Amino acid sequence: MSSRRRRDAPLPASAAGLLRFFEDESRGIKIRPEFVVIAGAALIAIVTILRIIAPI
Q1: Would you say residue 45 lies in a domain?
Q2: pLDDT score of 28
Q3: So where does this one cross the membrane (predicted)?
Q4: C-alpha closest to that of 44 among 55, 36, 34, 32
Q5: For residues 5 and 14, what is the distance between their CA atoms, to the nearest angstrom?
Q6: By the 8 A CB rule, do 31 and 40 touch?
Q7: Going by C-beta distance under 8 Å and a sequence separation of 6 or more, which residues neighbour residue 29?
Q8: Contacts of residue 12, Cβ cutoff 8 Å, sequence gap at least 6
Q9: pLDDT in tens, 11-55
Q10: What is the rounded distance in angstroms from the CA atom of residue 13 to the CA atom of residue 10?
């Protein structure tokens, strides 16, 4: 075993090096945060309206 450690990218000075930021593009679906918040709020509203209209 080698006593040297290999680092791919330098760590930020904040948070004692616990955070690591990657600038590489990743694969997957790209969704804007605003859409996620609006979709969540719409889902909550729909479920609330359905519970009022047709209580179980």
Answers
A1: yes
A2: 84
A3: 35-54
A4: 36
A5: 20
A6: no
A7: none
A8: 19, 20, 21
A9: 555 555 566 656 667 788 888 999 999 999 999 999 999 999 997
A10: 9
pTM of the model: 0.51
Residue 23, domain member (yes or no):
no
Predicted confidence at residue 30, as pLDDT, reads 87
Q: Give how far Cα 46 sits from Cα of 8, 37, 50, 55, Å.
A: 47, 14, 6, 13
Q: Take residue 45 and report the two structure tokens written for it.
A: 């509203």
String of b and e for 9-20 (b: at least 16 CB within 10 Å)? eeeeeeeeeeee
- Expressed as residue numbers, the domain containing 50 is 32-56
